[in-house]
Amino acid sequence: MTATATGPLSSAAHDAYTAGLAPVLTARDVSIEYEVDPPVQAVKDVSLTLHRGEILGLAGESGCGKTTLAYGLDRLLKPPAILRSGEVTFHDASGVDIDVVGLRGDALRAFRWDKVSMVFQGAMNSLNPVISVRKQLGDVLTTHRPQMGRKERDARSAELLELVGVDPARLDSFAHELSGGMRQRVMIAMALALGPQVMIMDEPTTALDVVVQRGILREIMRLRERFDFAVVFITHDLPLLLEISDRIAVMREGEIVEIDTAESIYSRAQHPYTRQLLASFPSLTGDRGSFVRTGAEQEGAS
Ligand SMILES: Nc1ncnc2c1ncn2[C@@H]1O[C@H](COP(=O)(O)OP(=O)(O)OP(=O)(O)O)[C@@H](O)[C@H]1O
Ligand SMILES: [Mg+2]
Questions:
Q1: Measuring from atom 25 of ligand 1, which residue has the nearest CA?
Q2: Any idea where the ABC transporter domain is (predicted)?
Q3: Tens digit of each residue's pLDDT (9 = 90 or more) over 210-253
C-alpha cells in the first residue's frame, strides 16, 4: 500500500471528533480513471472514512470527481471508468467487514442498495415516466426482498412514501403528475426502501427551489435521526453543507485537499482552496454568519 505523501489537511479538533466514532465505510488510496483518449484521472489516491450515523459533506466545483468517487464507493462504476487501485471496505452492522472491490455477482447485487444506497444526481428526472410510483417502489422490493408478498410490498411502499412526506395516495401517480420536490422525495423513498446503513446523496436538492429544498433537507435530517444511517451528501453548495454536515471533505481535481468538522471548515479552514470556495459565497462572508449547525445560535433554524 502506498501512503500518499501529503494527505488532506485536518485539525486536531477533527481527530478528536472522529476518535470516538465507529467506521461504516472506509476507502483507502482509491484511484479512478476514465479510459478515454487522453485518459482522465478523475479520483486520485483518495482515502476517506465515513462513520456510523454521520453526515459527511463532499464539496468541490463541477468536474472535481465527486460523482465518480461516490460511484467508486458503491461499486457503480461503468466503462470507461475503472478503479485503478485502492480498497473500499464496508463495516457491516453485523460486525463483518466486506471487501467492496472484491464483490462479484449475487454478493455485489446484495450489497448495492441494501447496504449503501444512492440518490443519483438528477434523479428526480430519472423516474420512469410510464410506470407508477407503486410499481417503481415495488420493483426495488421485488428484486431485493423476493420473499415479500404483494400486500406486504404495497404496505411497505405506502410506509416509505409517508416517511418522506408524500401522501400514499400518490402510489398510483406517474412521474409527470408529481412536482419536482415530490419526485425527489420518491427517489429518497427508494433509497430508504431496504434500510441501508449508508445513503449517498448526489446533489439531491440542487434543482429545487429554496423552500422545497428546505423541506426535503429537514426530512433527510429527521430520517437520519430515526434510522441512524450515515450520509455522504454531495453538493457544490458549501453554505448548505456547513449547515447540515458533521464533517466536510473538500475535493479538488480528484483529490480531497481538506477534511474537517463543519465548524472548523467554517471558522478556520486551512487549505487555500477551501478558503477560496468559502469566499465565493457572499452569504458566508457577510454578517449572516451563523450557518454552522454546531453553532450555538442558529439563524433561521426551524
Ligand atoms: N464518462 C466519462 N468519460 C470521460 N470522462 C468523464 C466521464 N464522466 C466524467 N468524466 C470526467 O471525470 C471528471 C470528474 O467528473 P465527475 O462527474 O465525477 O465530477 P463531479 O464533481 O461530480 O462534477 P459535477 O459537480 O458537475 O457533478 C471530470 O473531469 C469529468 O469530465
Ligand atoms: Mg457530479
A1: 62
A2: 25-278
A3: 888 888 899 999 999 999 999 999 998 899 999 999 999 999 99
Evaluate: CB of 235 within 6 angstroms of ligand 1: no
Task: Give the Cβ contact number of residue 15 at 10 Å.
Answer: 11
Structural domains counted in the chain? 1
Per-position DSSP letters for 63-84, written without gaps between them? TSSHHHHHHHHTT---TTEEEE
Taking a 5 Å cut-off on Cβ, the residues next to ion ligand 2 are 66-67, 121
Encode pLDDT of 40-63 as tens digits. 999 999 999 999 999 999 999 999
Residue 280 one-letter amino acid: S
CA of 122 to the centre of ligand 1 (A): 14
| Cell representation of residue 271 | 487549505
CATH code for position 278: 3.40.50.300
Parent domain of 219: 12-283
* Burial annotation 270-290 (CB, 10 A radius, 16+ → b, else e): ebebbeebbeeeeebeeeeee
- Mean pLDDT, to the nearest integer, of 286-302? 47
**Is the CB of residue 236 below 6 angstroms from any atom belonging to ligand 1?**
yes
Ligand 1 centroid to 116 CA: how many Å?
21
